[in-house]
Specification:
This protein is an alpha/beta fold and 538 residues long. 38% of the residues lie in helices and 20% in strands. It has 19 helices and 23 strands. It has a 6-stranded mixed sheet with strand order 10-15-14-13-11-12, with helices on both faces. A 6-stranded mixed sheet has the order 18-23-22-21-19-20. A 5-stranded parallel sheet has the order 4-3-2-5-6, sandwiched between helices. Strand 16 and strand 17 form a beta hairpin. Helix 8 runs antiparallel to helix 10. The two termini are 42 Å apart.
């Protein structure tokens, strides 16, 4: 590896005499340029940036005046020149560098302000291949990296926030500190890394390469947190620039305390689940606790759907997350606030509903502007020691036509509807998962057990307790459909479901014990369908 030259240490404070500005996003450009000019800084610029500065009546030099070369090749070549990069990279206090700069007429550049071509936005807007390629910035990242490497002498800015910090420092004493320049360099390197990551991801997608040789993940800091999953863990929340999938990362928080790490994880689970149900068909409500649903239901209104979802497990709903698939109205809000709830997330909310929640100062209310598409392609990530796992999003969706009936008794139309509803919920329950459901309402949910029989038992217990709480004579599981997110390896889990009152079962199938399980279903008079699709969730 290259050895570090024996450069003299950079001074803590560095004055700014010359600034090179080249920005695509011209927000605040003229104001910043005017302040720099008033502070005695010489301005150098390119193309449209120079034109905007000049139009404001400020003196500005064209970069071509430094390089002796005009902008060429449709603007692709304008700053890729030794005079520019020498001015950025030259170590002022190193005799050899100072001599080279003098011999070749290279003046130092003390401040670089660059905002990059909008590659990410071009992709998001559906730009074609050629347009996306043309919006890959070359000169900008090169200058940013040069300036960042030489942060001992150069301050580098990639956005208006950075410029504001530099201007504040200059107004104070006409210089920047080494600490500030280091922080600016770190941000700048992160910006170019994220930019290159976006390009690499897009290019891999264009080639249909699901597993490129190198893969990077980048995001922008949205929120620092008091702590992570537990108080002794640090945490922060980052959001992807693209694609902008509606959800907790895109939501507007209308009220309540700051979201915690666990709030965000649970709210994401809730909203991804509720998006499975088209709001044009029926209202839907999901109540989530520790990333697992404790109640999900459909209804003619959000109020009805919430009451039915709550009935499934009112004990676990305390301190939970509520997600709805429609615009939140006052009637539903009045029901929700009767139970202590951490977060409510909805596509939109009426003013009357917002007013109801306002009385609960700590309740967080989020609106997203829409629902995520459950069928959209995407990726999910998980860290492991020494690396990370990447997989495609589970965009599976079943219909009645996908079911293979394997028992002597075929399910009724109602049972088929219940089976599909239950299996959709099971997709969002931690494995091993069992869900009992009837008439668009979960009856009992068993989550995260090490064997499937215990999940079936827990779901049956929840269904019986819910019925007792509601004053009903029979378990909610009586007459229900039972969904298992993976196959039953043995008949015991299925028998448990039958004893709980289920009359139909839906499961992937594919076990070497399928014959025994089918025989047990026939003996119990159950209708059973195989999906051929497993929906593990770990």
């Amino acid at each position: 590896m290259p050895a570090a030259p024996d450069f003299p240490p950079a001074a803590d404070r560095a004055p700014i005499k010359r600034a090179l500005i080249s920005v695509y996003d011209k927000t605040g450009l003229v104001e910043a340029a005017r302040t720099l000019h008033e502070l005695g800084v010489e301005l150098v610029s390119t193309g449209g940036t120079k034109a905007a500065i000049a139009a404001a009546g400020l003196p500005v030099k064209d970069v071509a005046d430094l390089t002796g070369f005009p902008e060429m090749m449709d603007g692709r070549v304008k700053t890729l020149h030794p005079v520019v990069h020498g001015g950025l990279l030259g170590v002022r206090d190193a005799p050899a560098h100072a001599q080279a700069m003098s011999e070749h007429g290279i003046g130092g550049i003390d401040l670089l302000y660059v905002s990059l071509y909008p590659f990410e936005a071009t992709v998001a807007q559906g730009g074609d291949f050629a347009n996306c390629i043309e919006n890959i910035d070359i000169g900008g990242p090169a200058m940013i990296r040069s300036a960042s490497k030489n942060h001992g002498y150069v301050a580098v800015c990639t956005g208006p926030e950075d410029v504001a910090e530099v201007l504040e420092a200059l107004k104070a004493d006409g210089s920047t500190t080494l600490d500030l320049r280091k922080r600016l360099a770190a941000r700048a390197f992160a910006r170019t890394a994220a930019y290159d990551s976006a390009i690499a991801a897009w290019f891999a997608g264009q080639l249909g390469d699901a597993a490129p040789k190198r893969k990077s993940i980048s995001g922008s800091l949205r929120q620092t947190m008091r702590y992570g999953e537990n108080p002794h863990q640090s945490a922060a929340f980052y959001e992807f620039h693209q694609p902008r999938r509606p959800g907790v990362a895109t939501a507007r928080q209308l009220q309540g305390k700051e979201l915690s790490y666990n709030n965000i994880a649970d709210t994401d689970a809730a909203f991804e689940l509720i998006a499975e149900f088209d709001p044009k068909d029926r209202a839907a409500v999901a109540i989530i606790k520790h990333a697992n649903p404790c109640g999900v239901a459909l209804g003619s209104s959000l109020t009805e759907a919430y009451e039915r979802a709550l009935q499934c497990d009112p004990v676990s709903a305390f301190g939970g997350i509520v997600a709805v698939n429609r615009r939140l109205d006052r009637a539903a809000a009045e029901e929700i606030v009767k139970v202590f709830t951490e977060v409510v997330i909805a596509p939109e909310a009426d003013e009357d509903a917002i007013a109801v929640f306002a009385a609960k100062k700590n309740l967080r209310l989020l609106v997203t502007g829409g629902l995520p598409d459950p069928l959209a392609a995407g990726e999910t990530f998980r860290s492991v020691a020494g690396g990370f796992l990447v997989q495609s999003r589970d965009a599976s969706r079943l219909s009645a036509a996908d079911l293979k009936i394997v028992t002597k008794r075929a399910p009724t139309e109602r049972e088929v509807r219940d089976m599909l509803f239950a299996f959709t919920i099971a997709k969002h329950v931690k494995s091993n998962a069992i869900v009992y459901a009837k008439d668009g309402q979960t009856a009992g949910i068993g989550a995260g057990q090490m064997n499937r029989r215990d999940s079936a038992r827990i779901a049956a217990l929840r269904a019986a307790e819910a019925a007792a709480t509601a004053g009903l004579p029979d378990s909610l599981a009586k007459g229900s459909a039972c969904a298992s997110e993976a196959f039953f390896p043995f008949p015991d889990g299925l028998i448990q479901a039958a004893e709980a009152g289920a009359t139909a079962v839906i499961q992937p199938g594919g076990s070497i014990g399928d014959a025994a399980v089918i025989a047990a279903a026939d003996e119990a008079g159950l209708a059973m369908a195989f999906t051929g699709v497993r929906v593990f969730r770990h």
